[in-house]
Hints:
This protein is mainly beta. It has one helix at residues 86-93, and strands spanning 3-5, 15-18, 21-24, 27-31, 37-44, 48-54, 57-63, 71-77, 81-82, 105-116, 119-128, 131-146, 152-163, 185-196. Mean pLDDT is 88; it is low at 1-9.
Amino acid sequence: MTTETSTTETPTAAVRTVDGVELPAVGTWALDPAHTSIGFVGRHMMVTKVRGSFGEVAGTIEVGETPEDTVVSVEVQLASVSTGAEDRDNHLRSADFFDVEQYPTMTFRSTRIEADGDAWKLHGDLTLHGVTKPLTLDAEYHGVVNDPWGNAKAQFSASGEIEREAYGLTWNVALESGGVLVSKKIKLEIEAQAALQA
């Protein structure tokens, strides 16, 4: 595998080319919380999609010499959940769901990254509600660009799906018409920017 530094007018100190593919520079990239979104989608009454997100997110991407050597670590403050409805947000924070008093954070740490064509499979461990389970995310790298102040930002997106009951989030209400009030499967949608640390 050959590695060379890019010579284009893009932020050259923050990118490199590996086997003809542009990748972020080796080092620690810190998530920019103002431009990183950890979102989720569930179904209400088996039909309506309800979307939410978390406002407090921190993490790092330790970029290695190869993508396979890279490690991603993320921590989410569950009390920062927002779905656009205060009563629903408070219910999610309660012991029926996240139980933020006892389990204030959700964390993800990657264990392996593998190439999947132009995209990637990000394998790791998700810890939620005191339970740790393996999770695989479909991830994409969108390149490095300079913001208006000259700071290099790497951009990524990822998505996946969890079975919330596997994490002890079992609260539900049966519907007279069949089915349940809250879907068991929850889709995760992630958009992230990260800055290379000095």
